[in-house]
Amino acid sequence: MKIGLVLSGGGSRGFGHLGVLKALDELKIRPDIISGASVGSLIGAFYAYGYTADEISEIILKKGISGNIKLAFNKMGIFSLEKVEKLVKEYLPENSFESLKIPLVIATTEIRRGEIVYFRSGNNLAKVVTASCAIPGIFSPVIIEGKSYIDGGVLNNMPIEPIEDEVDLKIGVNVMPIERKMPVSSAKDIIMKSLLMSIGEQSARKNHKFDILIEPKNIVHFNGLSLKNAKEMFDLGYNTAIQQLQKSAEMFL
């Protein structure tokens, strides 16, 4: 049986993904292919290369977010993810999809054409991961072969489509469910809530495509741009996954 794993975007809520991955490892459930958007592509790349969930957590906490983001001050975005690209190259030195132990598909958005683009091969892994993480309006687009790419989650935050015909069992992990109760007190809040609700609704419409869908309980309450509650988010992912996967144990027989 071939298992496909899909990891959503969600900023620092990606620590929920790490908890799920730890649960999968403990239950000896190994995905045969991974598809990810935004932080899901970052976590997916490190895991597919061979790092454990705990090792990835340590790397991210050690390097932090602010320490790997620099001001860009250009008309396309406030910040640059150039240092994040260097971080990926540091820990995945071959910088290629082919170096990964588990095949990986990464969703990006080509912003000038407004199209979803999936990458799954080539010697530009770090740049593709960085492109998929480039939240619009905050981070500058990433240029790959002359084209401008941003966060893959904008058009497909749960990218099951590129792998659904290749696998027998589909597991989805969504750390960015619909946020209906997010408070609104400014124009910025309205824009952010609108974006998050749109992405959440887009993802929810494909829930039926997954044999197992894991949404870490209460993860919606955590700030996706802060590492302050990293351990809590990790534990939420782990505990939710253990409960759901044990209930679905017969699927893996």
What does this structure look like?
This protein is an alpha/beta fold and 253 residues long. It is built from seven helices and ten strands. Strand 5 (104-110) and strand 6 (115-119) form a beta hairpin. The longest helix is centred in the last third of the chain and has 18 residues, at 187-204.
Quickly list its features.
alpha/beta; 253 residues; 35% helix; eight-stranded mixed sheet; two-stranded antiparallel sheet
Write the layout of secondary structure elements.
Layout: E1 3-7, H1 14-26, E2 33-37, H2 39-49, H3 53-63, E3 70-74, E4 77-80, H4 82-91, E5 104-110, E6 115-119, H5 125-132, E7 142-144, E8 147-151, E9 169-173, H6 187-204, E10 212-214, H7 230-247
Parallel strand pairs: 1-2, 1-9, 2-5, 9-10
Antiparallel strand pairs: 3-4, 5-6, 5-8, 7-8
Main beta sheet: 8 strands, mixed
Distance between the termini: 9 Å
Helix content: 25-40%
- What is the total tally of β strands? 10
Q: Tell me the Rg in angstroms.
A: 17 Å
Morphology: globular
Average pLDDT number? 88
* Number of H/I helices: 7
Uncertain runs with pLDDT below 50, 5 residues or more?
66-78
- Percent range for β-strand residues: 15-25%
